[in-house]
Write a structure and sequence with these properties.
Largest sheet: 5 strands, mixed
Strand content: 15-25%
Number of strands: 11
Distance between the termini: 104 Å
Helix content: 40-55%
Shape: elongated
Number of domains: 2
Length: 380
């Protein structure tokens, strides 16, 4: 075996000892296949050139923060059970580029290939919003994909000329312009369950509280501490969620915003595809994956109950639940405030009831007349 081949083999074997702990982007290569590809030369490729190509690939991956591992099949099966890949098990596949879902779960670290990652990232963000914002009076939420007319879908058809190792290709690019449109995906309404957490830290203080507003971060931390799926660290790292909550506490009840697609991960997967196209014959390839070009910015509209509506339900919760009747709440004021709000509701309901009774009377008389009778005995 040539000297450079020995260096390649020793380098890969040494790096195969690297322990996988936790990285944001990761790919696993079969070390035996790499050694075979890098040391099995064709007559026009020198062993030194193979070594340079290996170092070039490693440099390109490091530049994109892709952590790579040269493992055997047996070692791939020894990963910690807390690492889950594509929701299946803790054994990843060779030549798959995985992205870590940053949900800050210390007990279960989930990795996904690109398309699965984009979908699960959006799903988790939606679930997190619902879980947190229902504690602050969430009433309605709709979502849609926003498609910008500047976006284009690019299809690349490569014709391989069959010269092994040189990667000589003819590329035929076809661009299809996507029309500007909004595709509504769905909406959901939420019941008014009250929101004592809202009144704990909102800017508009209500007089039945006897203490100053609590720090919103401490309130959020307390809410999320009760969950084994949603973590405060995620909230800490999402500035847009923090800004939305601040707006709600200042009295906003309808907010429109856009979560931008993960541009960085798209650049990374495209870079890895290019590496695979150029260096695939040397073992540095990525399994075929159709990258979704239609994962565009996601537009949300969220609506919150009006403060007075939240207050009424919150007061009812306090009146019926003694555990909420703390020393910081003046129950005498609570009862007076609820009586004031309830009288308004009762008067409104009486008016609606009178209208309904008039309608019942009209329908009843009309039905009796249609049967040739004026006696309402049929309804008694």
């Amino acid at each position: 075996m040539k000297v450079i081949d020995n260096i390649i083999t020793e380098t890969i074997n040494e790096k195969s000892k690297q322990i996988f702990i936790e990285d944001d982007i990761v790919i696993f290569f079969d070390k035996d296949n790499l050694i075979k590809c890098l040391t099995n030369h064709w007559w026009w490729i020198s062993d030194a050139s193979c070594y340079r190509k290996m170092k070039d690939v490693e440099r390109k991956m490091k530049k994109k923060n892709i952590n790579f591992f040269y493992y055997s099949s047996d070692k791939l099966k020894t990963l910690d059970s807390k690492f889950i890949f594509n929701d299946h098990n803790n054994v990843p596949k060779f030549n798959e580029l995985y992205f870590k879902l940053k949900d800050f779960n210390p007990n279960k670290v989930r990795y996904y290939t690109y398309n699965n990652y984009i979908r699960n990232e959006e799903d988790y963000k939606y679930d997190f919003i619902v879980n947190l914002f229902t504690k602050f009076g969430l009433e309605f939420m709709s979502w849609s994909y926003f498609i910008d007319n500047e976006n284009k879908e690019k299809n690349n058809n490569n014709l391989n000329l069959g010269i092994k190792g040189h990667n000589i290709e003819i590329g035929i690019d076809k661009e299809v312009e996507i029309e500007n449109s909004i595709k509504m995906l769905g909406c959901k309404e939420f019941s008014n369950i009250g929101a004592i957490d809202f009144f704990d830290c909102c800017d508009r203080r209500v007089f039945w509280y006897t203490y100053c507003a609590k720090d919103v971060n401490n309130v959020v931390k307390k809410i999320l501490k009760k969950s084994n799926k949603y973590y405060y660290e995620y909230y800490q790292n999402c500035s847009h969620l923090q800004e939305i909550l601040k707006l709600v506490l200042k009295g906003a009840f309808k907010i429109k915003y856009i979560f931008e697609k993960d541009i960085y991960s798209k650049h990374v997967i495209n870079k890895m595809i290019k590496i695979s196209q150029k260096y695939g014959n040397f073992g540095f390839k990525i399994n075929n994956e159709v990258v979704d070009n239609y994962s565009y910015n996601k537009k949300y509209i969220i609506k919150f109950y009006k403060t007075e509506d939240i207050e009424k339900t919150t007061l009812e919760n306090i009146i019926w639940n003694e555990s909420l009747q703390t020393n910081n709440i003046n129950m005498e004021t609570i009862n007076k405030r609820y009586k004031y709000l309830s009288i308004k509701d009762i008067n409104h309901l009486k008016k609606e009831n009178n209208k309904l009774q008039e309608l019942i009377n009209i329908k009843t008389k009309t039905l009796l007349k249609s049967n040739g009778s004026t006696d309402d005995i049929l309804f008694k």
